[in-house]
From TrEMBL, chain A:
A Pfam family that the UniProt record links to this protein: MRP_L53
Family listed: Belongs to the mitochondrion-specific ribosomal protein mL53 family.
PANTHER family per UniProt: 54S RIBOSOMAL PROTEIN L44, MITOCHONDRIAL (PTHR28236), LARGE RIBOSOMAL SUBUNIT PROTEIN ML53 (PTHR28236:SF1)
Name of the protein described by the UniProt record: Large ribosomal subunit protein mL53
GO molecular function list: structural constituent of ribosome
Lineage of the organism: Eukaryota, Fungi, Dikarya, Ascomycota, Pezizomycotina
TrEMBL record, chain B:
Record carries keyword Coiled coil: yes
Region (Disordered): 39-65, 155-180
Ranges of compositional bias, category Polar residues: 167-180
Xref: InterPro entries: Ribosomal_uL10-like_sf (IPR043141), Ribosomal_uL10_bac_type (IPR047865)
Biased segments, Pro residues type: 51-61
Coiled coil start-end: 102-129
UniProt protein name: Ribosomal protein YmL11, mitochondrial
Family: Belongs to the universal ribosomal protein uL10 family.
Record keywords: Coiled coil
Native source species: Trematosphaeria pertusa
Xref: PANTHER family: 39S RIBOSOMAL PROTEIN L10, MITOCHONDRIAL
Lineage of source species: Eukaryota, Fungi, Dikarya, Ascomycota, Pezizomycotina
């Protein structure tokens, strides 16, 4: 997963729900020094009884926000969604020659 | 092409020059050794049972020499021996950060231990035993299934020959289990029966959704809310369990510790077989004064109940006393009245 262009990650999930797996795996995909490099990661753990769906909010460097409902997605689909915009940004960066 | 047979001309020459003499030749009938008859004790008594495997290594269903099996066994013993287990998710924590976190945890627990020793409590020596440990999630899940669902109803020793039997030459009890893992009488966690019980997919673990992704556990050999409180305040600080202040513990606020703690998430806990979420874990940690505090509360409640009960019982007898006494006074008055009349 391309995480270079993420500036802000907000994850909300209930660990006791089986549908929270993609949310937790997404967190484990963030590289070890991303937080030190300025990515903001906010994790909100819901109580055990809550039925709220797990959600993921991502902000990119160009200001685009993406809100994903993780309840019906697998981790590969989440990665696809995030990477789609990241690849666009990567190509733009390459063309401008930075 | 037929297989080539290598000829050894020298060997042929030797054979030809010395023809085998009939005296030097051996005969099959003479070569068979006769085994001596067994001693008379063996023929009139049954042979004593012999343990067919090392007593610490009963045959296991999966190959015992691989790491997976040994981890499975280790996790089973961890789960059986620790009533309080905290589950954390670790997201790409670096080795340096692990080291820093472990150091802080050890220091904080040692400090708590010293404080308890000062208060005159006997040392529980939990400080050396409580550690954060990264686990293999799927093996841990499987071990948990064995621990939860495999309850062998009888020991292997039930089949053993009783040592009081005078015919047995040894007083050591030897289980009459065979050396194959399929034996139904095995009760250890790596046996075939344990595997069968754990692989029943109809049984669901309460902790099942938690067991995915990278996990680490902190296991406590006893449920001690004070130690839990210390661990929580180090590993997942919250308003109820504040992290140590920068002035009291500057090491805790090093970047290595802090960046590592950002990547640790408390998921839940398993306390004496029950599953608690984050809030529940904090509640367990918030029990004032630990187990002694709980006992004191219980004693207080029971004393209140006892007092109430005593006064209730006393009330009945007291009212009876008053009625009887009233009746006596009444009768005495009547008697007096009779005499005067």
């Amino acid at each position: 997963m391309i995480t270079r262009f993420l500036t802000d990650v907000r994850v909300k999930f209930n660990p006791f729900s089986p549908r929270s797996k993609p949310a937790r795996l997404f967190l484990s995909l963030i590289p070890p020094n991303a937080r030190a490099d300025g990515m903001k990661v906010e994790t909100q753990m819901l109580p055990r009884t809550s039925k709220e769906p797990s959600t993921l909010g991502v902000k990119f460097k160009d200001g685009k926000e993406m809100n994903l409902d993780l309840d019906k997605m697998r981790i590969t689909e989440v990665m696809e969604e995030v990477d789609r915009h990241s690849r666009l940004l990567a190509r733009k960066e390459e063309l401008t020659g930075n | 092409m037929p297989p080539r047979i290598r000829l050894r001309p020298r060997a042929l020459c030797v054979r030809a020059s010395h023809p085998a003499s009939p005296i030097g030749a051996t005969y099959a009938s003479l070569a068979t050794a006769t085994t001596p008859a067994p001693p008379i004790e063996q023929t009139i008594r049954s042979t004593p049972p012999v343990l067919r495997y090392p007593p610490t290594q009963p045959p296991s269903h999966k190959p015992p020499e691989v790491r997976k099996t040994q981890l499975h066994r280790q996790y089973q013993s961890l789960l059986k021996s620790s009533p309080l287990i905290l589950l954390f998710q670790h997201n790409n924590v670096k080795a340096v950060e692990w080291m820093a976190i472990r150091r802080e945890l050890a220091i904080a627990l040692q400090k708590l231990e010293d404080e308890l020793a000062k208060q005159g409590r006997e040392g529980t020596a939990l400080a050396e035993q409580v550690k954060i440990q990264v686990i293999q999630t799927n093996i841990f899940a499987s071990a948990l299934r064995v621990v939860e669902f495999f309850q062998p109803e009888e020991g292997t020793m039930d089949h053993a020959q009783p040592p009081t039997d005078p015919r047995t030459p040894t007083s050591a009890q030897v289980p009459q289990t065979t050396n194959v893992p399929e034996d139904e009488r095995f009760t250890h966690g790596l046996s075939r029966r344990a595997w069968e019980a754990a692989s029943n997919r109809k049984l669901k673990l309460e902790l099942e959704p938690l067991l995915s992704g990278p996990l680490a556990v902190v296991a406590f050999p006893t449920v001690s809310p004070q130690h839990l409180k210390t661990v929580l305040s180090i590993l997942s600080p919250s308003p109820a369990f504040p992290a140590p202040k920068r002035r009291t513990n500057p090491d805790y606020h090093e970047p290595a510790v802090q960046s590592g703690l950002q990547k640790l998430m408390l998921l839940g806990a398993r306390v004496e077989g029950k599953v608690f979420d984050t809030e529940g874990t904090r509640w367990v940690g918030g029990i004032e004064g630990g187990l002694d505090g709980l006992r004191a509360q219980l004693v207080h409640v029971l004393q209140g109940v006892g007092g109430g009960l005593a006064s209730a019982l006393e009330g009945a007898s007291r009212s009876l006393y008053f009625t009887v006494e009233g009746r006596r006074m009444d009768m005495e008055e009547k008697e007096k009245g009779d005499k005067t009349e």
